[in-house]
Design brief:
This protein is mostly helical. The chain is built from 3 helices and no strands. The protein has one domain. Helix 1 packs across helix 2.
């Protein structure tokens, strides 16, 4: 079961990041992007119907995917800003 959860997190993370980026281009304030990422991850994981992962494990996977997607964005954004300033 842990392998399935890890696989679900790995698949959901880039999907959540892409969805949040699309929502931000529509007009979402960037301050709310991490919250939207976590909510999107949880919703997508709850809707996941393949495999035999129970709901609580899917929700944890969605939470982890949302946190990873929002952390990934902020960690990539900072080095890019410092390169632009040089």
């Amino acid at each position: 079961m842990p392998e399935q959860v890890l696989l679900l997190v790995s698949v959901l993370t880039p999907i959540v990041a892409a969805i949040v980026e699309l929502i931000k281009h529509v007009g979402l304030n960037t301050r709310y992007a991490p919250l939207v990422a976590v909510a999107t991850g949880i919703v997508l994981a709850a809707l996941y119907a393949f495999g035999s992962i129970e709901l609580t494990m899917r929700l944890w996977a969605g939470l982890l995917a949302g946190l990873a997607a929002s952390g990934f964005y902020s960690n990539v954004k900072e080095p890019l800003k410092s390169k632009e300033g040089q």
